[in-house]
Amino acid sequence: MSFTFRCFDPESDAELLHSWVALPYAAFWGMHSATVADVVEEYSKIQSSGHHHALLGLDDGVPAFLMEEYLPSFSPLAGLYAVQPGDIGMHLLVAPPAGPPRTGFTAAVMETVLDRLFAKDRVERVVVEPDARNHKIHVLNERLGFRPAGGIVLPDKQALLSFCTREAFTSARAALHSSPIHQSPIRQGASL
Predict the structure, then answer these.
(1) Integer Cα distance of 94 and 2 in angstroms
(2) Residues of the chain where predicted confidence (pLDDT) is lower than 50
(3) Can you give the three-state secondary structure of 31-50, one letter per residue?
């Protein structure tokens, strides 16, 4: 799998993203009832914020996932945990499969996203806060080095706050690639 990234364009990419977030599997993304105009508005705010940014992930040139990176101190997480220098927040939404689901696809996407985040010298720890009910993502997060820090209440959900240090990711990745079967129980089409 060969993934690349480009900046998400709220105007030209909103219809595509809307087609993803409106599907049942994306319920945890929180935009199930959003219109295309709502997607344009939300991602225009994100892209102009200066502390939150969305990227479209491409699989061999085809849109396959959306990642967001944000500074926790400027997010709803501010005040809910002790933000440390080097913290960066991450959200990830994988597109529905265009063909048959590919085993290990979501794990490969997340590994690529974490690679991108940890490639920045200033990043020491990635923060995620998925819905507490999203058990599939908790399993994948732990496989890639995230450790749960406990439940938190955000404006739109009960979440499980988890952290992944650079060292934990490096160790988890080594263990993942040394296992005889390098597969993920989560398939393409996961909301993270």
Answers:
(1) 15
(2) 182-191
(3) CCCCCHHHHHHHHHHHHHCC
Query: Tell me: the pLDDT tens digits for 10-45?
Result: 999 999 999 999 999 999 999 999 999 999 999 999
Task: For residue 186, tell me if it sits in a domain.
Answer: no
Residue 56, φ and ψ in degrees, nearest 5: -95, 125
Instruction: Classify residue 148 as exposed, middle or buried by CB count within 10 Å of its CB (0-12, 13-18, 19+).
Output: middle
Q: How many domains does the chain have?
A: 1
CB 63 within 8 A of CB 56: yes
Domain assignment of residue 109, yes or no: yes
Per the structure, the complete domain to which residue 102 belongs is given by 3-178
Give the 3-state secondary structure of residue 143.
Answer: helix
Q: Tell me the angle at which helices 135-143 and 105-118 cross, rounded to the nearest 10 degrees.
A: 60
Q: What is the CATH number of the domain that holds 66?
A: 3.40.630.30
* Tens-place pLDDT, residues 153-168: 999 999 999 999 999 9
The contacts of residue 27 (CB under 8 Å, 6+ apart) are 191
Report yes or no on 79 lying in a domain: yes
What's the token pair of residue 7?
A: 């900046």
Is 185 within the bounds of a domain? no
The model's pTM is 0.90
